[in-house]
Specification:
The protein is mainly alpha-helical and 178 residues long. The chain has 2 domains: 2-57 and 122-137, Rossmann fold; 61-113, no CATH class. The chain has helices at residues 11-18, 39-49, 61-78, 83-92, 98-113, 125-137, and strands spanning 2-4, 30-32. Helix 1 (11-18) packs across helix 2 (39-49).
Length: 178
């Protein structure tokens, strides 16, 4: 799998990056975590590439825990009993009853799959769908200007302060060249 935490601006770079999932005869998925500000970029990439990505909401901690618990129960039910497991239980039975052994082992296994972290990350499903619809309807377009100054005053240097002589960018253009 390839996980994208930041989307490259141009479509070609994005396609090159996610192409790593299918190299050397392997299969995989490209998963891109997108902020609301990046939805338009995703829609532009979809249009440029001629494909549609599947949008999903990040599951809640509870949903992840339920999935892991379900997978664990399935694994327990389908696991072949090994001789080492039988020997371990026999050893434990000298000091503990079988129900206590089962509870202790279940507790240890459950600690391994316990999901920690925030309950919710990102937007809920309704909010995501609204943003996707807005991004689908966005036509793009020029916002005007080339944004060369990015909000800086023309008589300021890159650090935001004035030039030493208090003038703008080119201090040398009026000097005598004698």
């Amino acid at each position: 799998h390839v996980f994208n935490y930041h989307i490259p601006f141009d479509s070609e770079s994005y396609v090159h990056r996610i192409g790593r999932t299918g190299r050397a005869g392997n299969k995989g998925e490209a998963i891109t975590l997108v902020s609301p500000n990046e939805l338009r970029t995703i829609k532009r990439i979809e249009k440029d590439v001629g494909t549609q990505m599947v949008s999903q909401v990040i599951p809640t901690r509870q949903e992840v825990q339920e999935r892991k618990d379900s997978d664990l129960l399935s694994k327990i039910a389908n696991t072949q009993i090994e001789p080492a497991g039988i020997d371990m239980v026999k050893t434990l039975q000298h000091d503990l009853d079988i129900v206590t052994i089962a509870h202790l082992l279940a507790t240890i296994v459950q600690e391994e799959v316990d999901v920690k972290g925030k309950d919710v990350i990102g937007l809920n499903e309704e909010e995501v769908h609204k943003l996707i619809e807005r991004a689908k309807n966005w036509k793009g377009g020029d916002r005007g200007g080339n944004n060369r100054g990015r909000g800086r005053s023309r008589n300021r240097n890159r650090r935001g302060g004035r030039d030493r002589d208090g003038r703008g960018r080119n201090r040398n253009h009026n000097r005598d060249r004698g």
